[in-house]
Amino acid sequence: MSSEDAAGTLSHMPKAPDAIELRHLRSFVTVADELNFGRAAAKLHISQPAFSRQIRSLERLVGCDLLRRTTHQVELTVAGDALLERARRILGDVDEAVVATRSVGGELLARISKYWEPLGDPDPELPVLRDAYEELHAQFPPPPEVSVRPITADGVSSLLLRPQQPADITVLYLHGGGYIAGSAFGYRSLAGALTAAANTTTLLPDYRLAPEHPFPAAVDDALRAYLWLLDGGTEPDQIAIVGDSVGAHLVMSTLTRLEQQQLPMPAATVMLCPGIDLHCHEEVARSQQAQADTVSASQFRRRIVGDYLAGHPDDDPVVNPLLADLTGMPPMLVQASTGDPHLVDAHQLVDHAREHGVDVRLQLYPVETHNFHIFWSFLPEASDALQQAGQFIREEAGRSVARASSRSSA
Known about the structure:
Layout: H1 3-7, H2 22-34, H3 37-43, H4 48-62, E1 67-69, E2 74-76, H5 78-116, H6 126-138, E3 147-153, E4 156-162, E5 170-174, H7 188-198, E6 201-205, H8 217-231, E7 239-244, H9 246-260, E8 268-272, H10 281-289, H11 296-309, E9 332-337, H12 343-355, E10 360-365, H13 380-409
Parallel strand pairs: 5-6, 5-7, 7-8, 8-9, 9-10
Antiparallel strand pairs: 1-2, 3-4, 4-6
Helix pairs in contact: 2-3, 2-4, 2-5, 3-4, 7-13, 8-9
């Protein structure tokens, strides 16, 4: 007979109390193995009184004695014997699930690292860097339910992405790439995934890159694309501006320019792993502290500051969001990964926004990479983050439309 047969097969049993926890079962199995409370408590690194309380708590929850205790020995009751093997299987299944999950997590991180490898050259030539960035994005096609077609937004070459039945909301998506790499074509996948998650139409401008087109070319293109949406009849209450990495920096620059020109603000903004500090202070410090072989952080900083700013003062609020007055800015969602070398940027942006009364939310995901949203097709955290971003966009656009309607009726 199997151990399950020996213990008896019980049917029509009531549901186990929700208060039973793994620690209860682990303590019970340990004392059943040791048949000694002192040794079992020591094995689990807890005090004997605390251990005894856990056993008593479990017995109260199951409604019967599991152990028979005397001065000299501990033994299982019939009820305890019936629970023991089942408890072992439960703990074994949980341990196996954790091991499998960690294994998958490790495999996913290794897969992500492999995608980043072509960008690991400490100081590549710019054409090589751009090609590697495009090849990274080319490995992820856009969702099949999202259509993609070229369009020109007031002279800015762009792509228009649409799900089959989009809501009356438009996303202006500003891609990352350090102002020196990236393209609308390459970002079809990530922008398309957000389009599907938010069920919106998305305008993806192919803004001009440095060094061929230094500041303020990218900001000018983003602003023209936004105004093109307004000129086409899209209400600002139906627009959300989204950016990843340095694209989030471009979002902030665009908002600051809108504020300076007293132009209508969008309904919401979303920042995906924002790269706000163009000098990459935190990333450079980490690489120097670790004495890493690569100096890509320093080189990337040199490229951004030198090629994009091209001598423009970095105390300009348009290029330094942490110096800008964010009062009156639309609701903001900031998403970042806990292992992102730019995580401090996210925290600083959130703190600065809150100081100016902005309705800002921070969502952190346990991923060990920057710009993890790129890997939405196989990384659960990325897929979940985009769903949360899509929900945020829909909700905030709905609230903005309601506020506008209330003002007009008043």
